[in-house]
Structure prediction request, 214 residues.
Amino acid sequence: MAKDYQPKKLIVEGEQDKRVIPEFIEANGINWGKKEKPIVYIKSYGSDKFIDADVISTELKASGLTHLGLMVDADDNPSGRWESVRNACLKSIPDFLEKLPPNGLIHTTNGIKFGVWIMPDNRMRGMLETFLAYMIPDESDTLWQYAQDVVKDAKTKGATCKNVHIDKANIYTWLAWQDEPGRQLHQAIKERVLNPQHPQAQKFFNWFQYLYNL
Prediction:
């Protein structure tokens, strides 16, 4: 089992992130390593509760830590999310930047390389699924637009998915129409139903690669 004190760590909100990120990084040419010894240990908190000054302080003091990344969803308030992250980090990193760089934050503190990425692209509302929609192949644009229209129409007919989860509904609808239907998000990357080399997805890859010196 992977140990919690791995030198390179990425903290994420959910289990979906833990499955998707390794497949995305491998699809871009970097071997993720074995399950018990990955190149980066991904820790899921099950929510965004790690955006907390005491949690960040504790994580930064972990034995042997050399690199630490935070990946969070913007949801409907990108600027508010960044403000929350910044406030949580200021206790441990007094010179924390006021503004989130468009290509993600990378900052060295006490010899530790520290990074922040707010899904999907550090500026727009959204989440992991919004980011993955960037990887929908260009030739599928017409079907992708239709999938979004279908979800909107379903909402008018009583579909109960919350507005905050529309991006999830959109991409799963599109995936349901592929051959074969019903793939999970990480499988769609692994099997290249989604295009991990799409230019809009490369900013995150570049941030990840630079943060962890890969």
User: Anything to note?
Assistant: Helices lie at 15-27, 53-60, 78-90, 128-133, 141-156, 166-176, 185-190, 202-211.
